[in-house]
């Protein structure tokens, strides 16, 4: 099954909340893992949800950050399935030749379609020898794609600190204990 064909798993048992404290702890673990793996040249955030974690990781690494737009959800409503078709927009002023190790950051890897589409769109802007590695806070258990680094496997909707809190019961994700890798 490809990322475009995959469906996110929503068990409808709980809506998870990523608290600010757990978010900061996750960023610390992710940054430490990235540093241990080598030098990073730049960080790219996938807007909207990847913008905040990308900026914070880039600041911790003291490397440049830029953003791309990618969208495939038909709305931001809870439990919306992804369409599998991702529209990617690279803004004016985006670097023409990225070199070295580039971190591509998003809040969640729901199906992997966004990571796949954005990585493909970045291809013409990568210098010889450059490579993209993916980072997510969460990975939906329905995703056939595994980012290079992520913190939580989830089986329901996640509300992130930069999103409006819904008027339903939410349950905090546990404090992060480790980084997951493929």
What is the mean predicted local confidence, pLDDT? Answer: 92
What portion of residues belong to β-strands? 25-35%
Reported for the largest beta sheet, the result is:
6 strands, mixed
Class per helix and strand makeup: alpha/beta
Rg value: 15 Å
Number of helices: 3
Sequence of secondary-structure elements: EHEHEEEHEEEE
CATH architecture: 3-Layer(aba) Sandwich
Report, as a whole number of angstroms, the end-to-end distance: 17 Å
In short, what is this structure?
The protein is of the alpha/beta class. It has helices at residues 20-37, 51-61, 113-122, and strands at 16-17, 42-47, 65-73, 82-89, 101-109, 131-140, 149-154, 158-159, 171-172.
Protein described:
The strands form two sheets. Strands 4-3-2-5-6-7 form a six-stranded mixed β-sheet, sandwiched between helices. The protein contains three helices and nine strands, in the order E-H-E-H-E-E-E-H-E-E-E-E. It has one domain (16-69, 85-172): Rossmann fold (3-Layer(aba) Sandwich), CATH 3.40.50.2020. The mean pLDDT is 92. With 182 residues, the protein is of the alpha/beta class. Strand 3 and strand 4 (82-89) form a beta hairpin.
Could you name the key traits of this structure?
182 residues; alpha/beta; six-stranded mixed β-sheet; three-stranded parallel β-sheet
């Amino acid at each position: 099954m490809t990322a475009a064909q995959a469906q996110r798993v929503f068990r409808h048992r709980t809506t998870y909340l990523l608290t600010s404290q757990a978010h900061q702890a996750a960023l610390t673990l992710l940054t430490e893992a990235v540093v241990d793996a080598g030098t990073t040249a730049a960080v790219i955030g996938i807007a909207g949800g990847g913008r905040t974690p990308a900026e914070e990781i880039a600041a911790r690494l003291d490397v440049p950050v830029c953003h791309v737009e990618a969208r495939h959800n038909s709305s931001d409503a809870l439990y919306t399935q992804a369409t599998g078709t991702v529209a990617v927009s690279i803004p004016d002023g985006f670097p023409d030749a990225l070199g070295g190790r580039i971190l591509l950051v998003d809040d969640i890897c729901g199906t992997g379609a966004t990571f796949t589409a954005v990585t493909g769109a970045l291809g013409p802007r990568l210098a010889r020898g450059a490579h993209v590695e993916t980072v997510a806070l969460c990975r939906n258990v329905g995703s056939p794609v595994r980012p290079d680094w992520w913190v939580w496997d989830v089986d329901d909707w996640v509300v992130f600190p930069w999103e409006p809190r819904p008027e339903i019961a939410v349950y905090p994700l546990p404090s992060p204990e480790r980084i997951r890798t493929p």
